[in-house]
Amino acid sequence: MTSPLSTAEEAHKAVADRLTRMMEDADLSGARLAALCGWDRSKTHRIINRKTIPKPADIRAWCTACGRPEEAEALIDTTRTAKTLYVQWTQYLKGGLSKAQRNGIYQETRSFRVYSCGVLPGMLQTEAYARGILRTIRRFRSLPDDVEDAVQARLERSDATLRSNQVSVLIEESALYMPMTDRPQHAEQLEHFLSVIGRPNLAFGIIPHMSRRPVWPLESFYAFDDREVQVETLTAMVRVTNRAEVGAYLSAFVQLGRAAAYGSQAKALIRRALDAIGA
């Protein structure tokens, strides 16, 4: 598996490489280009080496200095796109938890694949479990309290997703033993899993503790059709859109699915976790 950051890095590298080639084609040194752009020559080297992401004004100045002003807007668009591929949670959630639940990609997707190594998948969460995890997120990230609105938005999104789409979910058995709410609410969530297993548009698999691992441990991720994977890290939400990288995640999902238990076997694992919670 490649790094989930590499799609964004690849875009920034493409911009830096094009600016470098443009400077070379214009037969300009870094010092000369800096003089034409009106900045210190160290800035030129920082942009070339991707230590600094150029601002739109920087790109326009660079392209003009090289006699290629017509290329500026395309490079600016590439840089802007790259910034959307790696978004820190502080930025992503600045509009609140409720707004974050209304991500348009859910309406545009017909096939969802979800792998979770910890938090139980959002689209299958009960109201109580969703409230518990969203409260935890709000506290951890010191966000304004719009939890109740966010809970309703999440439930509405989940209902719409499950009503008419194909959903495949894989969770690690260990996730069944990680309460993100009080135990009664966590038990209710596991009971809910028992009730949805067997739905015709839902493939629900649990990867047992001791199953032979076809892929090393991964971060939790959501795959939207075959075009985008979203990976949730502690500090950021990473969008993977590079075709090869998306393919790698989908391949890993398939291989992990072969190690999972389904149907009655999955229900047995859930009931074992319910027994442990009640102990």
Automatic annotation (TrEMBL):
Q: Which domain of life is it from?
A: Bacteria
What is the name of this protein?
A: Transcriptional regulator
Kindly give the InterPro entries that the UniProt entry links to this protein. DUF5753 (IPR043917), Lambda_DNA-bd_dom_sf (IPR010982)
Q: Give GO terms: molecular function aspect only.
A: DNA binding
- The protein's organism comes out as Streptomyces mashuensis
Residues in domain DUF5753? 109-272
Gene3D superfamilies noted in UniProt = lambda repressor-like DNA-binding domains
**What Pfam families does the record point to?**
DUF5753 (PF19054), HTH_31 (PF13560)
